[in-house]
Specification:
There is one protein chain. By secondary structure, the chain is an alpha+beta fold. It has two domains: 4-58, Urease metallochaperone UreE, N-terminal domain (HSP40/DNAj peptide-binding domain, Sandwich); 60-120, Alpha-Beta Plaits. It is 18% helix and 39% strand. The chain has a four-stranded antiparallel beta sheet, covered by helices on one side. It has a three-stranded mixed beta sheet with strand order 1-5-4, with no helix packed on it. A hairpin with a 2-residue loop joins strand 7 and strand 8 (94-98). The protein is elongated. The termini are far apart.
Length: 131
Amino acid sequence: MAGTTIEIPMNAADRRRVRRLISAPDGVQFPLELPTGSVLHPGQVLHEADGRVYVVAAAPENVVVIRPRSLEEAARIGHLIGNLHRDVEAAGAEVIALADSALVERLKRIGVPFAEEQRAFHGRAPGGHAH
């Protein structure tokens, strides 16, 4: 990529919306028209014009951060989140998922410590899955 890079912050749900008008932080607007089912990823180039490259950036959003204390607990957490059809991001010793009341309640019920934070989530938003 040559030129100035302009990041376009998008939360996980925004990264699933692939047909819309994008308004970049520098005021430039351009249409986004990708095939149905496409999911945008942080770092993905969306548009290039006038020496500028417009790329997807993960915007901060409400997440649950879990630091499993054992491999067994990590497996239980993965199973629980998978049953809710939620995506996870594994970052070092942390499991990160989009926060919602169903997930928070279930984590409390099984006694897993977690923190609710505002940070960029690099996984996918709920909305589609395959078995």
